[in-house]
Write the C-alpha cells for this entry.
Amino acid sequence: MKRFRFTQLALCLSVLFFGSHLASALDVTLSGDASVNSAHASVNYGALSNLYVGNGSTAFLQFDLTTLPPGTTSAQVSQATLTVFVNRVNAPGAVTVSPVSAAWGEYSVTAAGAPAVGGPIGSVNVAQAGQFVSMDVTTQVKA
C-alpha cells in the first residue's frame, strides 16, 4: 500500500493568464486543506500540518480563485499547475487528482461525510521524498 505525506505549506496553484495583452503568472494561495481516513470515518484531520494520501487516506485541497484579477475569464487562463512538496513516501506510486462535487469544510470534513469525487483530471508518480511534484490542472481551473 502506498502512503504519501505532503507538507501543507508547500501547496501552490500557479496560474498563467493573459489579460490586457500582457501575460502574467501568479500563485493562488491555498485556502483550505484536510485529510480524511476511511478507517476513522468520523475523524476530521483538518488541523494537521501534513496531508496524507493512500492506505485509506484522501487529501482535500481548496484554492480561492477570486484572487485572480477582476474580470479574468476562463479563456484568459492559459495554464494552471498544482505543485506539492512530498515530505515522506512509504511506498512509491501514483497520486491522482480529482474534482469534488460539493463544498466541504477544512475543520469539518470526514471520510463519512466527504463529498463525492469526479473522474481523475491527472496523476503524478511519486517515488521519493524531499521533492516537489507538479501536475497540469488547467482544464479544472478553467471550469
The first helix runs from residue 138 to 142.
